[in-house]
Amino acid sequence: EALEKEGYDHFMLKEIYEQPKTILDAMRGRISSKESRVILRGMEEYANRFVRANRIIIVACGTSYHSGLIGEYLIEDLARIPVEVEYASEFRYRNPIINEHDVVIAISQSGETADTLAALELAKSKGALIYGIVNSVGSSIARLTDAGSYIHCGPEIGVASTKAFTGQVTVLTLLALSLARKLSTISNTYFQTLLSELELIPQKVEETLKSSDHIKYIAKEIKGHHNALYLGRGYNFPVALEGALKLKEISYIHAEGYPAAEMKHGPIALIDENMPVIVTATNRSAYEKIVSNVQEVVARKGRVIAIVNKGEQAITRIADHVIEIPDTEEPFSPLLSVIPLQLLSYYIAVELGKNVDQPRNLAKSVTVE
Ligand code: G6P
């Protein structure tokens, strides 16, 4: 096992550090900015069903559900196809309206999650095109679907998903870009800008990982708290949900993810000096609004840990801690901003002496309802 960890203390840390490579692997052979091309072979065969779809429904569980939410932002923003994202377990039992004009995408690392599999079977029986975004080759979901795209991340051992999440988001990004191209919903110039930027993401992830020591230091300060609030807006709202889930899963600290603006409708009542608030503030749009959300937290003595772009000033001046990450095009910001949140939960769990790779009560693959 020590050999398999390749010198890292835990599989989770190894998998976090693998992400520059696994994101590249998820893109390999599928994108060429020189040729101005994005190709997802699995989708090409059914391209007509996708471009004519009334809507795309994404079903998933856990971390995969969060990548699905980012998929919703990506596909609606870039390709202008309506998207709904549902927990597979809710979808399958609520008598959903679904027909042959819908495309249902299942996202699953293991390809074996019972609820996701059952949701797909239901969608298939109603005539929808069913598509998989899966890591495990030859898994039940991969076999059931009409078509799909593997994320090619290699085996993920840590129960708390990290590299599979960024692999899923990468494939969803390629899907959105490919559909945007087919539907001409974005300009050629913007398409080209996005492609060139996407090719830079692996090295930007590498750069983001360099904050590791600083994050370890912040972890020591937060580890004694019993609650934490994660905030984000737009593309970074699902990242807040994922950050909170990571913390819960491995450190057993209660955490909630919230859209930053929604804070005033509830969580703000909880904020005092005992509430760390982790804010992802790398958005280009609505940036001013996020600054004012942070001011609201500071005014109530909440402890702010902010993820910002290099050179940011307004939040940096008032936050307790900032983690600087490289700037990118907004649709790609989750691929960078989730990295510090993965590391933060990892270091907090290590500080607390928890079993990082095999947290209590959780399973890597949930094959029962
Ligand atoms: C379990 C795992 C999570 C995972 C979820 C969905 O809860 O512990 O890490 O996100 O299942 O799994 P899947 O394999 O379908 O992505």
UniProtKB/TrEMBL annotation:
Keyword Lipid metabolism: no
Protein name (record): Glutamine--fructose-6-phosphate aminotransferase [isomerizing]
Whole-protein residues included: 245 to 613 of 613
Keyword annotations from UniProtKB, A to Z: Aminotransferase, Cytoplasm, Glutamine amidotransferase, Repeat, Transferase
Catalytic activity reported: D-fructose 6-phosphate + L-glutamine = D-glucosamine 6-phosphate + L-glutamate
Subunit organization: Homodimer.
Keyword Endoplasmic reticulum: no
Purpose: Catalyzes the first step in hexosamine metabolism, converting fructose-6P into glucosamine-6P using glutamine as a nitrogen source.
This enzyme's EC code(s): 2.6.1.16
Highest classification ranks of the organism: Bacteria, Pseudomonadati, Bacteroidota, Saprospiria, Saprospirales
Active-site residue list: K364
